[in-house]
Amino acid sequence: MSATPLLELRGIDKSFGPVQVLRDVAFAAHPGEVTALVGDNGAGKSTLVKCISGIYPTDAGEVLFDGKPVSINSPRDAAALGIEVVYQDLALCDNLDIVQNMFLGREKRSGIVLDEPTMEQMAAETLAGLSVRTVKSLRQHVSSLSGGQRQTVAIAKAVLWNSKLVILDEPTAALGVAQTAQVLELVRRLADNGLAVVLISHNMNDVFAVSDRIAALYLGQMVAQVKTTDITHSQVVELITAGRSGNLGLVTADAATGPNGNGAATADTNPGAVR
Description:
By secondary structure, the chain is an alpha/beta fold.
């Protein structure tokens, strides 16, 4: 693991009118690691991801990518840095085949016609690089794929473009046991290939199966980001539901003002706080 985070957020604030959704959020994602982003509904996970991907502008704070300050003002800016997001709805077209979906909006051309051989070769190499063996043909329509295969195609589409950070939003939602295992294996393989992976999930079994670190959001605040081996299942649940577990999380569960001004303990007083 690199000592320098690939992505680092410092003091991120985001409000919609009078409602403050994110407050002084710190977050880090390292290359070669899976960081699980967990939190209850309304905790701010989706808003944070949309700030990272350039859909929402932040109100305050700093974003560093590969150790350098950057401004992400649009999804195009995020893609240029190597940030790709696989949303829960996958954004795949059922009436197109695998190759067409992977290059949708970014088609390769040879003169005025599509360069089908090049696109098919690149798609095959990407799937092979991820050790994907469950897809029979690159030319089969997405409508004929299982849920796990669709998720695989969506992930392969994200890593096709020299991505460095892949954010996965509930990749195992509505999948069966075998398909979930297949997708989790692929998630782990992304990190083993050197990418930084952010996994958003409500499934604690999935989180503990593949993540290296767990970052917990509570009511718009990052209450802890710790190594998965340093925390228990019950502690994560307490952080999600109450914002505190033992010496982890907020100084008070009701988010009263704390030593650093936002209710969270500082790294000096709380060894489990975000660092």
